[in-house]
Amino acid sequence: xxxxxxxxxxxxxxxxxxxxxxxxxxxxxxxxxxxxxxxxxxxxxxxxxxxxxxxxxxxxxxxxxxxxxxxxxxxxxxxxxxxxxxxxxxxxxxxxxxxxxxxxxxxxxxxxxxxxxxxxxxxxxxxxxxxxxxxxxxxxxxxxxxxxxxxxxxxxxxxxxxxxxxxxxxxxxxxxxxxxxxxxxxxxxxxxxxxxxxxxxxxxxxxxxxxxxxxxxxxxxxxxxxxxxxxxxxxxxxxxxxxxxxxxxxxxxxxxxxxxxxxxxxxxxxxxxxxxxxxxxxxxxxxxxxxxxxxxxxxxxxxxxxxxxxxxxxxxxxxxxxxxxxxxxxxxxxxxxxxxxxxxxxxxxxxxxxxxxxxxxxxxxxxxxxxxxxxxxxxxxxxxxxxxxx
Length: 390
Known about the structure:
ten-stranded mixed β-sheet; elongated; alpha/beta; 10 helices; 20 strands
């Protein structure tokens, strides 16, 4: 059961339980829920005070991009020529923004000439030199200088690899302006940021940078990091973030400044669930058909290892799917590969009567799962079904 093309519809079921009953999947099965994609997109398109760029790295699969396009998303945060071409091959009218601070040689030139990309990011003098050498007509592009925004509040920081401080950023802004390009600023407060105040703090850093440079920027990209709610970890409502951002922008020195954001996880996490099957039980160990090298790569990171509380499901004698009942206990859960490191880092609480052939449903599996899977040992989860009424 391979991932469908745009013209090859997925099998359709009213609920995840019906999908398990109908397919009895012995391979990992991704369940796509279009209304959850649409709901997430509506929150940002109606609440954020600027352009909403989907961060393609969170899930570059055509199914995710198609659902977001249908929901009204037209801008895409891309980090490579490959991501740009993935989006453009699906939707030529899509607006791609090349927001990686370090690019392979020649990719900015190809993005600009082939795909009309006009937004680029730098955080160093050398990358600015390379960009200007590839696109000599700088007057046709916007260059975003990336700031460090290591402010806490996020489960995974995004400033130790990229970004520069206000002083260095101010120097870059001056050079960008002198080149004829439109000078802009950007930052990233970190992935799964649970503190709306972090965005206000980062906007204040942007204001400090502008003051140091004496440059009036043409746009501000506040990056991604918007969280999603996982079972056991309720994220603050998005309007708290939008209100905080609006308030910070109201005190900014540049009125009516165009702004952008780059949600990834927030747009796709809830839209896909995952069904796995128990291959073997050995005491308090379960061996399932997906693991760290497949859909669970993100569990390697501290703070993300409790994001996917599971539901045990069995088929009765008549083939009807139902949640397993009974007292829960902790299980060590191993993936299907021969690598002993292929084990979920924390025990999973599941009914004590779960056994070989039963299924485990994990919700909120749309972000950094499909994008991180590998084909290690010949295992590659790629079966799909649609969950929708009608």
